[in-house]
Amino acid sequence: MNSNPAKILAVASGGGHWIQLQRLKCSFESCDIVFVSTHPSYNKQAAPHKFYAVTDANRWNKLKLLKMAWQMLSIVYREKPAVVISTGAAPGLMAVIWGRMLGCRTLWLDSIANVERISMSGRIARYFATVHLTQWQHLATNKTMYKGNVIA
């Protein structure tokens, strides 16, 4: 029997994505959590857990997006998590893609801000995530589940 706690790689962009990820932190208390975000200052909020900062990138800046994708691959490969969890945007999408390709279980929780439809990153993540969740019941489908929300 393995006594080591499961390693979770928890990834989110800044702002609301990060806040929603932090709301989930108490659910992972028995796990070894590694956080990743785009703001180095979030290191303090992630403490005492390991933290990585990656380049803040989006679809409008292809070079930064490539750099961030490479950074995420390096982190996923180095940390070898059992599970990758993301509340969104580009770094989370890259983590879910790389994680799935490297054999991790993956969970995408689309941001509560996406009221009318799943985010663009979330729509892509649907093809890679082991579990794909929305925080809005009316957005649930056969591939995207609704189990509640993290910010009421």
Write the layout of secondary structure elements.
Elements: E1 7-12, H1 16-24, E2 32-37, H2 43-46, E3 50-53, H3 62-79, E4 83-88, H4 90-101, E5 105-109, H5 120-125, E6 131-134, E7 145-146
Parallel strand pairs: 1-2, 1-4, 2-3, 4-5, 5-6, 6-7
Helix pairs in contact: 3-4
Folded structure, characterized:
- The chain is of the alpha/beta class.
- It has a single domain (7-146), classed as Glycogen Phosphorylase B (Rossmann fold, 3-Layer(aba) Sandwich), CATH 3.40.50.2000.
- Helices cover 32% and strands 22% of the residues.
- The protein contains five helices and seven strands, in the order βαβαβαβαβαββ.
- The chain has helices spanning 16-24, 43-46, 62-79, 90-101, 120-125; strands at 7-12, 32-37, 50-53, 83-88, 105-109, 131-134, 145-146.
- The chain has a seven-stranded parallel β-sheet with strand order 3-2-1-4-5-6-7.
- α1 (16-24) links the parallel β1 and β2 (32-37).
- α3 (62-79) crosses α4 (90-101).
- It is globular.
- The termini are far apart.
Question: Termini separation (Å)?
Answer: 39 Å
**CATH class call:** Alpha Beta
The general outline is globular
Low-confidence stretches: none
Oligomer: single chain
Can you give the mean pLDDT? 94
Task: Sum up the structure in keywords.
152 residues; alpha/beta; Rossmann fold; 22% strand; globular
In brief:
This protein has 152 residues and is of the alpha/beta class.
